[in-house]
Structure formats: structure tokens, C-alpha cells
Design brief:
This protein is mainly alpha-helical. It contains nine helices and two strands, in the order αααααββαααα. It has a two-stranded antiparallel sheet.
């Protein structure tokens, strides 16, 4: 009953309210001003773009394939960490991760015995890469913030990113059964 971005808005709204409520109840402090751009980037990359890209890919990719492709995020995290110099990885681990990526590539391009690029599967791989970037980018924040704070503040910025789709989600929520609204949330 909703477009992928309307679902993303509803989820970001629900997550912001729940996590904000938990943070408020625990007396969670607000982030430092200098960290706001990082939280905004985390919200954009790790929640907004990730959700939008994944939703687009999942429209035409079977759930099992999408789950496997998204589960490749740790592999991408290791490789990106190695390429950027933010992680030192033993050569054996790097070889194993590279072999895993070839498996992901075969799933993404292989279709019923032919090697044809499946654009939707590649879109899901992009979502996994965005998740890897999000994970790497948040690591330095753990020195000053708890996991709850990092997720709460980055989800809040994702909610801000999805605000343009809020009106459409609100209008559509008046047209669909309540069960679909609850399912989206």
C-alpha cells in the first residue's frame, strides 16, 4: 500500500520516536556540535540511502537472494577498511573475503545458468556497500557515544532526509487498512 520511500519515512519516524523516547527516559545527552555533520552523514548513508536503495532492489530480487547479498556487508566493510587503511587485515582473511565477494558476484549476475547482469541484485549489493560504509564511519564515534546514541542520532537525521515523503505516507495511511500501516512501521 506504500511506495518504498513512504515505508522508509514511516520506519524512520517510528524509530526516531521509540529511540528518542528511550534516550529521553535514560537521560541521554545530545551530541556535540562538531559531531552533527558526522551523524547527518551516517543518517544519510546508513539509513536513508541504504533503505531507499535496498527497497528498490528488493522489488525484483527474491527475499533469499536479497538476504544473502545484504549479508555481504561485513565483507565489504573489511575490503573498504583495507583500501582506506582504516583496518589491517591478515592476508588469509583478505583472500577469504575476496572469495566471498566472488560468490556474491555470481549470485548477482547468475540467473538460471546464464551470466546476465541482474541490475536489481546489483542494487542490493550497493545497499550492502552503503551499510559497510556506515559501519566503518561510525566506529570513531564509539569513543564518545554509546551505541544507542549513535543509532538514535543517525536515525533522527534519516527521518529528516525522508521528511519530503512524509505527506505522501500520511495521505496513503488514510487510504489503506491499519494493518498495512502497522506492517510498514
Amino acid at each position: 500500500g506504500f511506495t518504498p520511500v513512504e515505508i522508509a519515512f514511516l520506519r524512520a519516524l517510528a524509530a526516531t520516536l521509540v529511540l528518542g523516547g528511550i534516550g529521553f527516559a535514560q537521560g541521554m545527552s545530545l551530541p556535540r556540535l562538531r559531531d552533527l555533520p558526522t551523524f547527518a552523514a551516517l543518517g544519510l548513508i546508513g539509513h536513508s540511502l541504504y533503505t531507499a536503495v535496498l527497497s528498490q532492489g528488493q522489488v525484483r530480487v527474491p527475499a533469499a537472494m536479497a538476504s544473502f547479498l545484504v549479508a555481504s556487508a561485513p565483507v565489504w566493510m573489511v575490503l573498504i577498511g583495507r583500501l582506506t587503511g582504516s583496518a589491517r587485515i591478515p592476508q588469509q582473511v583478505l583472500i577469504g573475503m575476496t572469495l566471498s565477494l566472488f560468490g556474491v558476484l555470481l549470485i548477482a549476475i547468475g540467473r538460471m545458468g546464464s551470466l546476465k547482469i541482474n541490475a536489481s541484485a546489483l542494487i542490493v549489493v550497493v545497499a550492502a556497500i552503503l551499510q559497510a560504509i556506515y559501519s566503518l564511519w561510525q566506529r570513531p564515534l564509539f569513543v564518545r557515544y554509546s551505541g544507542l546514541q549513535i543509532v538514535t542520532f543517525s536515525v533522527f537525521f534519516a527521518f529528516i532526509c525522508f521528511l519530503p515523503f512524509g505527506w505522501g505516507a500520511f495521505v496513503q495511511s488514510t487510504r489503506v487498512p491499519p494493518s498495512q500501516v502497522l506492517s510498514a512501521v
